[in-house]
């Protein structure tokens, strides 16, 4: 049975790109999943590595799903190695709250995350000095926690080569609010892709449809990018209060020094995290977002 990679899932069909020794090859095969998956409550996902059996008319059946190295529920995509969290330097201004929310989800999913700041051309405009200084400070803070930060402009092409290099050979999922420039960036990264951007759909007099499905796109440096409708409804389902701390990596690292095991770093005595937030060793905004998410999680638990 040939090996394949699910590149698209739509209306009960799975589109499987055959994988030959050394990489993808051949035509995408439209497959159904074997009945047994449904019985076991398993849904094949975009990004799944599978074996499939070709049937008639160039169609096929997915027989087996190989073990996943990562799994995201929203967007539903498997085996991603990297999440590129895309923020614009302006228009819209980046939100650290949203960034930290993304980071909690990627850490929870065991996914490496990197931050990509787009629209850097806007920083050259008059009156952007304060924004530029603020971004430098943010970049340094997140680098210190351990996240790579890339900067680019889809408009001028600045930094695009570095982004491409960074994504080479990796399975990457893009995440970011609508309007930050994900489609423009993808179009820059992948010649000939020609995704509709907001601008273009405005010109055509209709809004771009936002409920696009997840699709894997091979990129020229090797690897694939999952173009997704976005991490739209991020809630903390599946993340409990005890686990949240470990999703803030610097808090997780410090939690071992708290006096009590299972310390939630709220007001417990001899809490290393509270002390670090007070001394500035942990960034204040990170600790505040931690508290805010913790409250969301515990409030929800109380309601149900
Ligand atoms: P998406 O919703 O994240 O896919 O964002 P789009 O790619 O559709 O871009 C949203 C808007 O930002 C469009 O009007 C783009 O022209 C604009 N845009 C995208 N990238 C850049 C950039 O690098 N610089 C500037 N100045 N504008 C950009
Ligand atoms: Zn603590």
Description:
With 304 residues, this protein is of the alpha/beta class. The chain has 3 domains: 3-67, Beta Barrel (OB fold (Dihydrolipoamide Acetyltransferase, E2P)); 72-227, P-loop containing nucleotide triphosphate hydrolases (Rossmann fold), CATH 3.40.50.300; 241-303, Probable gtpase engc, domain 3 (Ribonucleotide Reductase Protein R1, domain 1, Orthogonal Bundle). Helices cover 33% and strands 24% of the residues. A hairpin with a 4-residue loop joins β13 and β14. The longest helix has 20 residues, at 284-303. Guanosine-5'-diphosphate (GDP) binds next to α5 and α6.
What's the quick description here?
The chain is an alpha/beta fold. The protein has helices at 35-40, 96-108, 129-145, 160-167, 182-189, 198-203, 241-247, 249-254, 272-279, 284-303; strands at 3-10, 13-20, 23-24, 29-33, 49-54, 59-65, 71-72, 77-78, 82-88, 112-118, 148-151, 170-175, 215-218, 223-227. Helix content is 33%, strand content 24%.
Key descriptive features of the protein:
304 residues; alpha/beta; OB fold (Dihydrolipoamide Acetyltransferase, E2P); Rossmann fold; Ribonucleotide Reductase Protein R1, domain 1; six-stranded mixed sheet; five-stranded mixed beta barrel; 10 helices; globular; binds guanosine-5'-diphosphate; binds zinc ion
| Count of strand segments | 14
Mean pLDDT: 89
Number of helix segments? 10
Give the CA-based shape. globular
| Distance between the ends | 46 Å
Q: The CATH topology of the largest domain is what?
A: Rossmann fold
Structural class: alpha/beta
Q: Main sheet: which strands, in order across?
A: 11-10-9-12-14-13
Could you name the ranges where pLDDT drops below 50 across 5 or more consecutive residues? 200-211
- Give the ligands present: guanosine-5'-diphosphate, zinc ion
Task: Give the C-alpha Rg.
Answer: 21 Å
Report the biggest beta sheet as strand number plus sense, adding barrel if it closes: 6 strands, mixed
- Helices and strands, in order, run as EEEEHEEEEEHEHEHEHHEEHHHH
Class of the largest domain, according to the CATH hierarchy? Alpha Beta
CATH H level, superfamily name of the largest domain: P-loop containing nucleotide triphosphate hydrolases
| Helix residue percentage | 25-40%
């Amino acid at each position: 049975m040939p090996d394949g990679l699910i590149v698209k899932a739509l209306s009960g069909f799975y589109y499987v790109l055959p994988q030959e020794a050394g990489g993808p090859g051949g035509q995408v095969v439209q497959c159904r999943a074997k009945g047994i998956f449904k019985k076991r409550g398993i849904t094949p996902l975009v990004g799944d590595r599978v074996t499939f059996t070709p049937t008639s008319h160039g169609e096929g059946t997915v027989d087996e799903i190989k073990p996943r190295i990562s799994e995201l529920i929203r967007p539903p995509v498997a085996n991603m190695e990297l999440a590129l969290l895309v923020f614009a330097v302006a228009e819209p201004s980046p939100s650290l709250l949203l960034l930290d929310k993304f980071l909690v989800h990627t850490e929870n999913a065991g996914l490496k995350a990197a931050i990509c700041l787009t629209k850097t051309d806007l920083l050259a405009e008059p009156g952007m000095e304060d924004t530029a200084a603020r971004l430098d400070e943010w970049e340094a803070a997140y680098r210190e926690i351990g996240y790579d930060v890339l900067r680019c402009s889809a408009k001028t092409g600045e930094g695009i080569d570095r982004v491409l290099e960074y994504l080479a050979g990796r399975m990457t999922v893009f995440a970011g609010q609508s309007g930050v420039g994900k489609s423009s960036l993808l179009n820059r990264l992948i010649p000939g892709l020609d995704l509709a951007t907001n601008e273009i759909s405005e010109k055509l007099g209709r809004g771009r449809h936002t409920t696009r499905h997840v699709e894997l796109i091979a990129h020229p440096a090797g690897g694939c990018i999952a173009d997704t409708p976005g991490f739209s409804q991020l809630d903390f389902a599946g993340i409990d209060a005890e686990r949240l701390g470990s999703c803030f990596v610097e808090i997780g690292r410090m939690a071992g020094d708290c006096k009590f095991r299972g310390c939630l770093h709220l007001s417990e005595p001899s809490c290393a995290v509270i002390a670090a937030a007070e001394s500035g060793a942990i960034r204040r905004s990170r600790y505040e977002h931690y508290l805010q998410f913790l409250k969301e999680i515990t409030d929800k638990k109380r309601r149900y």
